[in-house]
Amino acid sequence: MTQQVPKFNQPVLRPDLENNLVSGLMPSFALLDNIRSVWNVGSMFRTADAAGLGGLYLTGMTATPPRKDIEKTALGATLSVPWDYWKDSASAARNIKDQGISLVALEQTEKSVNWQDFEFPFPHCFIVGHEVSGVKSEILDLVDHSVEIPMAGVKHSLNVAVSFGILAYRIRQCWLEQNS
Q: What does the alpha-carbon distance between residue 40 and residue 43 come to, in Å, rounded to a whole number?
């Protein structure tokens, strides 16, 4: 079975990782929908590298490398994680879906299921949204699934980079279980 793997316009700048990029990355991608904090973006690059995600789609106001403030938290992961930039996040989501890749929003909606109970389809692209307003409704209309991380405290959500990390490692766990 051939996995759908999107092409990224940005080259990976560390050719020594070429074999890892071909064989070691999961067919799991993430779309960052208008992330306002460059430190969150850098953290998500670093987590994407650590978890073995196939790449990132940076959209809207989301900062793009090269930037020293992203590197403060990315620590070089911008050189090893494939990424692409799209001005419009909904256009990026439609393009991904048109490639036959499932869209999974990390968002609290009426249809969301607990992240621990969800079996991620491969390939897929999970979507994280703006730190205050979340994933755009236009994108939520396109997604195949929504997952959420239930909150036990008085706050309604976690920091987006923390949520990204939790989900990236749940996806890694699903990938390893399906491929062991």
A: 5
The pLDDT tens digits of the residues spanning 152-180 come to 998 888 999 999 999 999 999 999 999 88
CA 31 vs CA 73, 108, 136: distances in Å: 19, 17, 12
pLDDT at residue 7, rounded to an integer? 59
Determine the distance from the C-alpha atom of residue 70 to the mean position of all C-alpha atoms in its chain, rounded to a whole number: 16
Taken in order of first residue, the domains within the chain and their CATH numbers are 15-178 (3.40.1280.10)
Instruction: Tokens 């909904």: give the residue.
Output: 90
Alpha carbons 38 and 54: distance in angstroms, whole number: 21
Model confidence band, residue 16 (pLDDT cutoffs 50, 70, 90): very low
**What is the number of alpha carbons within 13 Å of residue 170 lying toward its C-beta?**
19
Pairwise CA distance, residues 83 & 67, whole Å: 14
C-beta of residue 120 within 8 angstroms of C-beta of residue 171: yes
pTM for this predicted structure: 0.89
User: Amino acid identity of 109?
Assistant: T
